[in-house]
Amino acid sequence: MAPQELHRFHEVPPQPPSPIRSHLHSQNRPPHLHLHRIPRPGLQSLNPTRPHLRQPPITTGRGPKQNTISAANYGPTWRLLRRNLVTETLHPARVKSFSQSRKRVLQDLINKLKIESKSRDDHAVRVVDHFRHATLGSLLSMCFGENIVNDQEEDVIKNVDKMMRDALVSSSSRFSVLVFFPRLSKTLFPNMWAKLEEAKTSREIVLGPLIKSRALENNNNNNYNNNGNVACYVDSLLNLSIPEEGGRKLGESEIIGLCSEFLNAGADSTATALQWIMANLVKHQDVQDKVFEEIKRVVRDDEEGIIREEDLEKMTYLKAVVLEGLRRHPPVHVPIPHAVTDDVTLEGHLVPTDASVVFLIAEMGWDPAVWDRPMEFDPGRFVDGGMGGVDISGNRGIKMMPFGAGRRICPGVALSMLHLEYFVANLVWEFKWTAREREEVDLEEKQEFTVTMKCPLYARLSPR
Ligand code: HEM
Fold first, then answer.
1. Model confidence, pTM
2. For domain 3-463, which CATH number applies: 1.10.630.10, 3.40.50.720, 1.20.200.10, 3.40.50.450?
């Protein structure tokens, strides 16, 4: 190492003990990219809760060029794909146009919970798979259009769910050997390679036909605006062209990758957050009672029994509960590593160009210098502008960042908040949630695709 480099090396912040794997939110990437090692200096912790780090200057590259949003380096392709997702699918007006499909998914969820709880002697239901089914159902409609999903809903959800679980197995850390020694590992570990291929093929088999059906439906109607349906994510991808590459259209495998990213990024994280929030409502009955009382004040005469999305805006305590759930139990603890394009100095430490930077999301929300009694579940801290009115987008200072922050912040923030508030409100409105007899809710964590409950929640559901 040249003396100059050695000097630079000593200024860098503490290193993590071993290369940190990117968090599992990056599931959609091809396997060699999820398992991306950090060969460059890695930062153990960078805490942008300090005021001068409001906008972390670290928002750039993520590794080799990839045509998915989360894997793409900062540049024209990333901008194009991200803008397309944000303006064509996650724009509030477009999200609103899928409210019927969310209502259908919610009714289906409530019915399934009712049936299962009635069928059990103790009325206790293991809820997480139902939550996952519901969030996936809602995202599938937004991705492929209501018609495509409605016709064969249960099968589609089942197949996509299996596809995502297969992909999860092939992204586990033992597969990292394939990334570092591709040639050798083909001879040494043929079974692991076969599993990777299987996961890729399963994505093509499951998602390919859904994309083709939608393209055909659009062609038959001249274009997607003419078919009387709400435009979905696939419609925008089929129409997208890349100016930097001569205006070419996206290929089928690129569209499959982007749809897979959409589903992977949104379904598990939302279902995980929902499970954590409901577990806390079971544990803290006083908080659940307050949510119920607030709903009663807002929707006294609702004929249908389902709380409407418009009513959620009036429920400030509900929002506080969701925020506290995301602070105390962020589904993603360590996001995909970021990198700096130029040397920057943070808190006296040099962050050299290209260094991988790892944000410890959970630690930020638990920082005792920022939060009073950080490990307690106390939604009251967010009520009446408490905590300086935390801004989840990080524009007014970062005190917690369950969705990341800055340029690469999760584009699904508003949709996730809507899903969580809508499901929590309606689930509390429909049932009283309690623990099984002689059982305490166990809040121990487990790292899976997201950081989830080690002992999944079993809740007794009594109709209100
Ligand atoms: C509770 C639910 C969710 C949580 C906690 C969550 C969290 C995150 C986090 C921590 C990141 C990384 C940010 C960073 O690198 O700084 C991220 C990125 C991303 N999320 Fe989410 N997410 C959720 C739901 C969703 C949904 C519903 C979608 C889309 C439908 C989505 C799509 C994405 C995409 C595409 C990225 C990559 C953004 C980029 O690199 O520019 N997420 N999310």
1. 0.85
2. 1.10.630.10
